[in-house]
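We modelled the chain as a single entity of 248 amino acids. Its sequence is:
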Amino acid sequence: MTDSRDKIYATPQLDIAGFRFDQTVASVFPDMIKRSVPGYETIIAMTGTLAERYVQANSRCYDLGCSLGASSIAMRHHLQQPDCQIIGVDNSEAMLKQCRAVLQQDDKDNTTALAPVELICGNVQDIPISNASMAVLNFTLQFIPVEQRTQLLHNIADGLLPGGILVLSEKVAFSDPQHHELMIDLHHNFKRANGYSELEISQKRSSLEDVLIPETLEVHRQRLREAGFSSVDVWFQCFNFASLIALK
């Protein structure tokens, strides 16, 4: 499967609509996220490593906001326990259609049987979580309405087995305005270095303005503890992107 170059915001747009995970985005998503999110490949690789360590026999793994299935594939390639199932959830049928093709190719490329992945089209807030030893929210919570985030994390914590783990990766904000602006500038420099123009950076930022709502690491830590996680901390951060590990 050939990845297309992200040129969605390369030409001027008179009316910039809110960002949507539609077919246009799905067709260029691998290139988009690689050039937009610093450390993305490291986070995905570590998701697999964590699955190897924490996933329990006869349990489920949830990839919430699975997009094209990168986290699901990372987990299924590292599972050491028998009879595990991965459930991928996304509310974009366009993303899931592409994800199915990616998973089919992954099956073809491997001679050994891999854990099955069930894909569900729906909002992650509405999905029951049960018998789970691992859940992943990689750059998903930031798109959930703020008032619904606490309940979602409670649902995940309640559905995790003792010793289970949540990986939460997010674009984050900073309480210090000067530091906040510095991290935004450094992120934009990262995007420039990856070939995005000033026009693309500006128009993409406008499209995400009321769609992606970042919060501080302090808010994330507090919410995770209130949801029932006993241990919470950051394992990775680059500029204004971070990933946390929360243990049940």
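As a brief sanity check on the tokenised model: The longest strand covers residues 160-173. The mean pLDDT is 96.
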